[in-house]
Amino acid sequence: MAKGELLLEVRSEEIPARMLRPALAELEAGVFDGLASLGLAPRSIDGFFGPRRLCLVLKGSPRREADQRVQQVGPPASAAFDEDGQPTRAALGFAKRCGVAAEALQRVSLDKGEYVAVEVEKRGRPTTEILSELLPRVIAGLSWPKTMRWGSGQGPWIRPIHGIVALFEGEVVAFELFGIESGRSTCGHPVLSPEPFEVKGALDYRRKLERRSVEIDFEVRRERIAAGMRELARGLGGEVVEDPELLDKLTAICEIPGVVGGRFDEEFLALPREVLVTTLRDHQSAFSVEHKGGLAPAFLTVMDRLDDPAGLVQAGNEWVVAARLTDARFFYQEDRKLSLSEHAERLAKLTFHVKLGSYADKAQRIRQLVQILCEELQWGKDRKSAELATGLLKADLTTEMVKEFTSLQGIVGGIYAQADGAHEEVWQAIYDQYLPVTSSGSIPRGRVGMVCGIADRIDTLVGIFGLGLRPTGSRDPFGLRRAAQGLVKIVLEAELPIDLDLVAARAVLLYGDRFERTGDEVLNDLRPFLEDRVRHILGLEGFAYDEIEAGLAVGFGNLPDLRARVQALHGMRNDRGFLSVVLAAKRIANILKDTEEHSFRVELLKDDAERELYESSRDLRAEVEAAEAKGAYDECLTSISHFADVLERFFVEVLVMDEDRDLRQNRIALLQSIQRTLSRTARLTSMVVDRAELRKG
Amino acid sequence: MQSFQGLILLLSSFWAERGCVLQQPYDLEVGAGTMHPDTFLRVLGPEPWRVAYVQPSRRPADARYGDNPFRLGRHFQFQAVLKPSPHDIQAQYVDSLRAMGIDLGAHDLRFEEDDWEAPTLGAWGVGWQVMLDGMEITQFTYFQQAGGLELDPISVEITYGLERITMFLGLSRNVYDVEWGGGLSYGQVRHQDEVESSKYYFEIADVSFLEEQFAGWEREAQRCLEAGVVLPAYECALRCSHAFNVLDARGAVSATERVALIKRVRDLAVACAEAYVASREKQGYPLLGANREGNADGQG
What we know:
The complex is a heterodimer.
Chain A: E1 6-12, H1 17-36, E2 44-50, E3 53-59, E4 68-76, H2 77-80, H3 89-98, E5 106-110, E6 113-122, H4 127-140, E7 148-150, E8 154-157, E9 161-168, E10 171-172, E11 176-177, E12 180-183, E13 185-187, E14 196-198, H5 202-211, H6 218-235, E15 239-240, H7 244-252, E16 258-263, H8 273-284, E17 287-291, E18 294-303, H9 312-335, H10 340-344, E19 351-353, E20 357-358, H11 359-377, H12 383-392, H13 400-404, H14 411-419, H15 424-432, H16 447-466, H17 480-493, H18 500-510, H19 519-540, H20 545-554, H21 559-572, H22 576-592, H23 608-629, H24 633-641, H25 644-653, H26 661-678, H27 691-696
Parallel strand pairs in A: 9-12
Antiparallel strand pairs in A: 1-3, 1-9, 2-3, 4-6, 5-6, 7-8, 9-10, 11-12, 13-14, 15-17, 16-18, 17-18, 19-20
Chain B: H1 4-17, E1 21-22, H2 37-40, E2 49-58, E3 74-83, H3 89-99, E4 109-113, E5 116-118, E6 123-132, E7 135-146, E8 149-150, E9 156-161, H4 162-169, E10 179-181, E11 184-185, H5 186-204, H6 207-227, H7 230-249, H8 255-282, H9 292-296
Parallel strand pairs in B: 1-2
Antiparallel strand pairs in B: 2-3, 3-9, 4-6, 5-6, 6-7, 7-8, 7-9, 10-11
Helix pairs in contact in B: 6-7, 6-8, 7-8
């Protein structure tokens, strides 16, 4: 038994796989923090889980809290002693309550006056006692996505609890939760080894579970499953088609990591690969097997037992897979009775949104947006293919296959278009239209796919915002955040020089009079939403918040241009000259606050320093404009950084707010012109500069 | 090898031995055993209850003219409902599988998350689909709400898919080949029904007649509620629900109408649930303390 060891196991009915890991993390944190706050932090903490148990092993917690001397404050001194300095009844009562003689009372000065007090020894409580309050509170307080009650209203928890093992240094930490008393008894696999057994501590617990083939360490289970699958796949003459997400899911749903394989009829290999893989994964939680560049007629999955002595598990899984593939083939054959363009004709009956019309209406708007995009991008050669692709883009939403497997939307359309003999650009555009799926996912392969993906998303965003249904908090029923994210990612990654403001404005027009709000209201709502996604993605690319803000303030519509400006700011981040100009720009902004526009007259220049500033500023403007025309924003900022000394001299030697009105207004006019030059690339005043850091460097 | 009717007999006696009232199938068209008033209404309120029955369940949209070896327009569920849910209900369920002759020492049994929701009933619960060797054989649900009302005590509902289980145990590739009993196959007993019902649902059903039916039964339900007769009102609601299902299979319901029609059925179900609870309360909850066996175990 390790010193200061706590073993905790909460055993319940099957907890949903996806919730296990977060629940364990919360349990760990709750118990650790609860102990640490009382000075009882363990030296180590390990967590384990299986579908039916959450488990913690803590080591090195002290056996009891440290003893403390604490001051107990009693009545005011004035009420504690009478005129003769003798303790009053109040004082005697207080001393008695504290268990001391009246002589032990001391006078103490507090903010509120003089009081009597006594120092008492407070014995630290035993850790076991603390745990018996802490553990039930932490277990009951776990934040599940959805909870339930059972029996006569027990709970709420994620599923009914059946047992709790709680041992501190081998002794039971006694408590009750939802009618279950903690103890030292648990059991193994509910079907294969249901007999209860008692445990002495963590090591004994692990050993006894192992003897019952239960492995509670997730990583160990996953490695065993992965190894088992590799071996089985080799036996089938192939390799596992990797799918880490599925592997995690399967590891979470078993306590005993067994692997089972099976075969299916080769005739199903005629189905598209994506359909086979998805059928096996979504319906059967099974892996596909790769074989010589194609799929093998085989699958691999997990069972919650070690072996399959009678072959029944394999036979059962094969039976279900055959049924599933028969279904998939039925859908495929039904779908293929019509060409994809015939499917597209049914879109008129499929509602996109009650107030925004059918998918046929949507497809029509996408078609026009795609033409606008091709024009903007000067992709004339792609117009024809884009036109064809948009006509078929959403057609697969009417197919049986997509109704069955929504995750295959787009992909099914692409496959069917290819089978119909569509040109590569066209079917790939349909296939790729929903890419990127995640923020790190790849974008559509070709130009047509990109414009289709952009047009579709803009249309959805504008439409839903047009109805005033923008996402709030965690509610985003139309997936607008993901749509905006995908849109921004395509534009940035492919560096497409399109003006998003303009495209969104055109998208609003295409909706005609379907909105009850004006186009400007819609666009003004949408703009900050898109800007947020831009912030997020540029942030992921490693740019600092102030760099992004400074860039966004100057221009948003053209995202690659925005990124070039942010990139330039990032590059100048540590340049002394540039940072000094940033400070000067902030100073200029302060001076110019609430000033009116004045006109500049060169003959009013008086001091050398302002004459120098004027001349340098003319050069600067020319340099910045020239660099800007090339899109060389780093050069713009380099030129600006060289402006530091002149600006500094000006502010040291010249007083802008001169008493002479003409001189004052002329200097303001000069600064206004300089401000315009400085803010062309980015709003420099958004940059955060650490003055102390600057002085040091 | 277990025949179809053998399985029914077996499950019936298994749950009857565990204190369930052996009820008969409801004599109206329903989409699932849950809609039987002995589940939907009995799970409401404080009275204990245990029941088991077979329920023919109609899913017009799943009808396949008797051609598809796995899908049926009407299938049979065996359903057990225990209220409050006994603490050892999972173990009892596993025992029912053993009683069917399934040697769990040689099979893989898993409980996979699968929460249940019935928008037309204003009901939801949490639980699992029970997987035997990768096949879903049972829905296992702890009801949390029904008719829009929070439930206390909690009922557990165990729904066995009878065709699936018989097919699976025999590894039969076609539901129509399954042995029903009495020397006949499932196909011999039911095939004509599947063929003709499919034809009716997809080709013949008169849309405007069904729409009138829906509206008519809806009015009738409201009249019953006003007259204070709950069970007849609920039957009218079930008829609305079935009319909706046939209309849906017929392709006569657009996405918008769909939402509206579901809401109309739910409104009726919710009203019936509330009226039922009120009527039981008025009677002083007659079953409180009556079903001793049902109250004996569990933690309650």
